[in-house]
Amino acid sequence: MFFGPLPLSDAEGAILAHSLRLGSVVFKKGRRLSADDVEALRDAGITEVIAAKLSDADIGEDAAASRVAAATAGSSVQVAAAFTGRVNLFAETHGLLRIDAARIDAINAMDESVTIATLPDFTPVAPGQMLATVKIIPFAAPAAMVQQAERLAADGTPPLAVLPYRPLSVALIQTRLPGVKDSVLDKTVTVTRERVEALGGALIHESRCAHDEAALAERIAEAPAADLLLIAGASAITDRRDVLPAAIERAGGRIEHFGMPVDPGNLLLLARRDGKPVLGLPGCARSPKLNGFDWVLQRIAAGSPPSRADVMRMGVGGLLAEIPTRPLPRAGVSSETPRAPRVTALVLAAGRSSRMGPTNKLLAEINGAPLVARAVDAALASQAANVIVVTGHQGESVARALADRPVTFVHNPAYAEGLSSSLRTGLAAVPSETDAVIVCLGDMPRVASAVIDRLVAAYSPLEGRAICIPTIDGKQGNPVLWDRAFFAEMAGLTGDAGAKRLIGRHADRLCEVPVDDAGILYDVDTPDLLARFTEADGRGRISAPDPASAGSSPG
């Protein structure tokens, strides 16, 4: 890859290294310069630019990051679309993250252009939580390095995966000494049940007996079959020959390990009976606060029970006790775990099709499905969390045509007032937990789900990318992603121009997202365009957008 000053005569196709402002127009870093861009730079008196130019031995940053991420990701891991050489990986389910640290290290050691950053091994994760990010540092990576990373990732199971929690059945036995109140034991039951249910399991049995070896052994033998047996002693285990371990052995069990280098949680006992794990609980297990028991329980629930050696390796990072130099949860210090953005796709399908005559273009059948289904299906196939369809003109017919699809319908009775009224209606139905919306137009049948995913990947309001709009050859198209911060302004718009006018107001928060999909410029709004699209689709061939059809208002 070449990087450095380039005369304009060699700049077409190069990637701009630094943003440039030409009057009111800004060419941002990372823009691939077109012939028109070069001409605009020349007209502005610029003779050379600092840019990168790829060779045949290079792979562009987005393609390289996507390939490394795809090779790295294993089960229950979602790979997001690439943007600026970065691909984020997210959990698809509750479970434990498993990392092959040696192979991740090996990939990071190959070349400075390829990097992977992950959460620690065995981190408990929730759906949508970010697990890792793949970042290509320059504008491209050597093809040989990308291929080597793929080979390393393919050497065995993928080096990054989520082990889903299984629905464990759990039995609990508690011992008691004279004078111990039932309320203390009842609290232990409540805390244990909450712990187990948080991992998708169920506490199916609880019993109590005297803190005596014989009595406890009898209770262990009588306990119903369960995936895991927990024993909470009235007195802490102080030795392998104490009451709890002795009773387990008397009932036919085997002690695997006593003690763990995790605080709180030091006095945990690891055992097995009838092929199932048995845990003698430390006293801290009666508290809901994180302790070593949680680490072992999570491993068992994820189908990866720790061995004696595994427990003995838990010391690094095993100091869980609150200490003066660590911010305490009760002090009000909190931070949100990085996660996938919650994006709602808003499909506007309320228009009157005034240029179509008596025909409602959205209901026109194309290869057995209504035209509007193309936009809806693209949204459903994307990484959008949910899809809302705004109906208006012939709303009942549009809803019937899409009735078999998992979307939410909202009706705009004021659809005759223009696009802004449909936008207002749709925004009012957006869930409160939504971070952003992607405004899709129902008469744009060629927008692919990959375009939507790329907008989601680009979205980062903290980095100034709060409005994301796709472009091709420098032309802005649809759909457009809008951060929640703009909802109030969008809802206050009037007329038929949509949210286009807001883009100029907030240029500093705008991100143009280059795509290769000319469908972002193509809408069907005349009988001739509908006929041509129907014919082309029937032949399985899509022609380039007609210039006359490229005028839809973004957003």
Structure description:
Keywords: Magnesium. The structure is a single chain. 43% of the residues are buried. It contains 16 helices and 30 strands. 28% of the residues lie in helices and 25% in strands. It folds into 4 domains: 2-53, Molybdopterin biosynthesis moea protein, domain 2 (Alpha-Beta Complex), CATH 3.90.105.10; 58-163, Aldehyde Oxidoreductase, domain 3 (Alpha-Beta Complex); 169-320, Molybdenum Cofactor Biosythetic Enzyme, Chain A; 343-549, Alpha-Beta Complex (Spore Coat Polysaccharide Biosynthesis Protein SpsA, Chain A). It is α+β, with helices and mostly antiparallel strands. The two termini are 37 Å apart. Strands 21, 24, 25, 26, 27, 28, 29 and 30 form an 8-stranded mixed β-sheet that branches. Strands 16-15-17-20-19-18 form a 6-stranded mixed β-sheet, sandwiched between helices.
Compute the number of strand runs.
30
Rg over CA atoms, rounded to whole Å, is: 30 Å
CATH superfamily of the largest domain: Spore Coat Polysaccharide Biosynthesis Protein SpsA, Chain A
| CATH architecture label of the largest domain | Alpha-Beta Complex
* Number of structural domains: 4
Give the % helix: 25-40%
InterPro entries: Bifunc_Mopterin-bd (IPR012184), MoaB/Mog-like_dom_sf (IPR036425), MoaB/Mog_dom (IPR001453), MobA-like_NTP_Trfase (IPR025877), Nucleotide-diphossugar_trans (IPR029044)
Pfam families: MoCF_biosynth, NTP_transf_3
Keywords: Magnesium
Protein name: Molybdopterin-binding/glycosyltransferase family 2 protein
